[in-house]
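Trying the structure run again after the queue cleared.
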Amino acid sequence: MRKMVTAIFAMVLLGMTVLLPNSVSAAPAGIGPMEATGCNGNVCMFLSTPSGGRVYIQAWARNTSFEGNFDLVGPGGLYRHGDTKRWYAGSHPNRQEWDVPAVVGKYCVSGWENGQRIGYPCLSIR
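Done. Tokens:
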């Protein structure tokens, strides 16, 4: 009888661990960061919270306007080349924008002027 009670108790506990979410599995992948912004050199980037399987990324000149482009790299070989033009310092309304599939990993933006990297901020989706 004692073995039967122990076996039933073990099955109930096992069933509860399968049905009750833990802190790792309760949150869907891609929760952090929430609306993150990061800067490096003369480049800043924004990474949105993933929504509908997509993530929204912006890049802009931080302190000094420049003639050049932004490139985006990310998980799974993601690469997007941005427009080559005059980028004025500050994010609004002059910014490069991308809407890409949300994948857990690190997203980085390079700013380029005359073939020289002028900044390389990175943010991650965990």
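The longest strand covers residues 66-74. Worth checking whether this holds up in the mutant runs.
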